[in-house]
Structures are given as structure tokens and as C-alpha cells.
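re: ur question from the group chat, yeah i did fold both. here u go
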Amino acid sequence: MPNGVGRTGAHRIDSRQRAARNERDERFVGFKYMIGHNTQILYRLSEFPDIKIVYVLRENKLAQSVSLLKALQSKRWAHTQKDDYVEKNQAGPLNVSHRLHEYATYDELFPLWLETQPHEHMTVEYRQILESGFEEKICAFLGCNFDPSMKSTLVKQRSNEILDRFEKPGRIPRYFNLTELERWLGQEIG
């Protein structure tokens, strides 16, 4: 394991190496990398110029930030079954603002890094993932056959109304109206 690469990061790269050596047709291996995960993965990616990268960004930084803050608060990162458990987000406007500006910075810097890489890449806005025909588009980009049974195992848990996700939403609209980001207060996915 390279120095500084954690168990998860090393496993992901090693999985790619094993798939490349495998005699079966396992050319398609994927993993989710988020800024904030081990940076050694970014460095190691250059060793595999044939990897195709799908970069998913989310225009609604408020929704993106609330999702992260909610996961940090509840320690529930992904849901594969519908769950009636709802714990409202306790973050206030400044905490949310801090996170959304971090995400905005990532979305400014990551494409610059991506342009320096040899990888073929595709940029997708989060809502496009839910559009009809997205699976076919992603398969065409990756060069794999579309299978109608391809579906995410994740299940949406929260309301589409962003403010419904807060314990005390009162100050959130005021802040986002003052900062001219009120477009993020409504439904993200309609």
C-alpha cells in the first residue's frame, strides 16, 4: 500500500488493478470519490490514463451542503431501504454557508485539475442523473452495454423541499434572500 493511502483508497485502486488483470470481462469498475477523500487517489489516477471519469456536480449547493451536514449529524450515509426515520438538520445559516462555499470552491478547482489529466471525462449535473435516458448516456460514454436492470440501490429519503430538512428553518430563507441565493430554497427535484 503506498504511503499515505488509507485502506479504502488503496482498496479502490487495487480493485482497478485486479479488474485489469482479470481474464473475465470486468473492464468496468467504479467508485465514488469525493473531494476530502484521500488525495493519493488523485495522484494514482494518472497511472491509469484509460480510466474514464464521470464528474458529478450539484448546482444547488444548499441542498448539497444540507445532505452532508445531515449525514455528519445522523451518521447515516446511504439508504438502500425506505426509512421513516427523519431527524431534522440542526445547522444554522453560517454553518450551511461555510459548507456550500467549500463545495463551490471544489467545483471551481476540480475541473481545472481534470483538464490536466489524460482521462476522458464527462460532467453531469446531479439532477441529470434522474432524467429519462441517463443510464443509456452513461453507458455510451463508458463504452458498456446498457442493461435495463441497472439501477442504483439507494433510496431517496428526504423531502424535495429544502427547508423541510431543517429543525429551525426560520433564519435560512432570510440569509439566502440577503445573499441572492434564494433560487436554492425551493424544490431541487420537481
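okk and heres the other one u asked abt
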Amino acid sequence: MQWYLFDQRELFLASDEMDLIAYSQATNKPWRNIKPVSIPTLTHKQMRKLLEQLLLRLQQGWSIREALQQLTDASSSRERLCLLGLEYYLRQGHPLFTSLSKICHGELASFFALLPNFSSSQSYLIALESVMAQLDKQSSLRNQLLQAAWYPMFIMISSVLIKFALTNLGMATATFVDNIIMLGIILFCGLFLLLTLSGWLPRWLNQTHQSFSLANIFALTTTQLKCGTPLHAALLNLTTLPKPATQQIELWEANLNLHNGKDLTEALPKSWFDAIGWSYIEDIRATGDSIKAFHYTHEYHQEKVACILRRVKRVAPIIGMMIAALTVANALVSIYGPLLEMNQFA
């Protein structure tokens, strides 16, 4: 399938030239105004800006198509192609979030795909706010990881440079093992920065660590419940997202239990909740308020994530200083070791 741009104002997805010819004849668009293009991948920052502008216009009472048309006219060429692609899918009859999932990639596409297609504008507003909150959380996690690692990496690389300078000046010696260790420190720091800045490390934490994954599960479940999705359907949607194997099994078991008519206290894993959250689950039969239980549990796991990050920020500088101290101490020993041996035999 290939995207084609007509008169800089419209995109069309064609499987072959016959589709393109038929569309050109049906719309009376001359061939000279048609050119093949590819839709670029927007960064999380660009996608958040686009969604924020879309949300603002929807809050002002604009329709989705009117808001997209206005954004398309005012956007840059890169964002313009994405918006034109989004308009194409809407013209084909796809709902908003299904269309967004088709022009995004990776985790963001999976997130859009699990959101239901709503009938009310209020539900769209709630869902868009949730998407923006998820993007903000990803950005915040990346920034916190960088803040935690910046100082330790700085002192580790500084110690390696000191060792390297002393060795090249002939004041210290470096064995093969020393060189391997110094190279390993530099490669580790560079790889950490690359994986964090690219967003891979935050995504990996969200998909593998229990607290990070549960915080996402309850955030997405709360969003779907607020938009009117039944609980069993919301949990079923979440099975498509990557997560630790244990949680994937527990999620499927919860879906099967709910499908078989079991009560929430029997269907949901108790290990996902603290005492207060579980008491809210037990009260759902009487109150009918499932949003309160899942929102509280999301906040609970989000606080656990914040606690983990605070510990990392406290421990990372200590580890960095220990590695830097050992590197510098090794250089000092190689300088003063021979002198001490000469004094011993003098």
C-alpha cells in the first residue's frame, strides 16, 4: 500500500496503479498533481501537542472534522501529512481513535486501539485527556531517569578521563583489564542515554516491572470506565498491551471469571490492591461505583512508582561515586605503587 498526495491537500492510500487511476478519474484530479509520499512518525512530544490542540477545539464546540481541517491548515509539513492521513481514515468511516492508531506506531498505537469509539463528545474529551496524561507520564519518567543518572554518569566519565589522561602522560599505567573496564563504563553510560532518550527504557519498565505495569493497567481501566466501557470489556482490551507474563495470566483469569459471572472479589487478583483498594472493590456491589476503586488503586501504584524513582535517585549517585573512586584510586596506586616499592628496598 502506498500513500499519494493530491494538490498538497488530500491523501489517498492505493494498493496499485489501478486504484489510483480510478480515484483520479472519479475525483477529476490530474496525474501531474499526484505524487507518492510516506507518513512520518510523530514523536510523543509532537503527538501530545497535536492532541492538546485538538482537545482545545473540541472543548470549544468544534466538530472533529472541523478541528482537524483547521489544524491541517496551520501545521508544519511533517504534522500536515499525519493530519491528512487521519482525515483519510475518517473519510473512510473509521472512528477517531481507530484512525489515530493507524497513523501511530508502537505503544501509542496499541493505546489508541484499545480505546472504544464513543458516541458522546464528553467521552472523547475524557479519553483525549487520558492520552495526554499517559504521554506526560512517559515524558516525566524519562526525565526522572535522566536526572537520576546524570550526576553519576558525569563523575564516572570524569574519573575515566582522569585515568586516561594520567596514562597518556606517562604518570600512570593501565593494564588490559583497566582498559576494558574504562571502555565498559563509557559504553554503559552511552547506551543508557541512548535507550532513555529514545524512550525504550521507560517503555521497558512499563512492560516488565510490576508496579509500573499495574499503574498503567489501572490508569487505562479507569479511563475506559469513565467513558462508559463495561469492566469486563475494559479488562479484555488491556490483554492486548505488553506486560509481565504473570500479570498477563492474571488478567486473562480475571476476564474468564467475570465472563463466567463471578463476583469482582472472586474474579480480580487481590494482590493488585492494598487494603483500602480491596475494601472499595468489596463495596462495589452496594455502591455500584467501580471508578472509585480503580482510580484509588491507580494512585496507589503511581505512588509506589514515585517511591522507586526516589530510591533510584538516592542510590545512583552513591554507586557512581564508588565506581569513580575505584577508578581514580587505581590510577593513584599505579602512580605511587612503584615509589613505595623503591622506598621499601632503599
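fwiw on the second one: The chain has three domains: 1-38, 43-114, 123-345. Strands lie at 2-6, 10-14, 34-37. idk if thats what u expected
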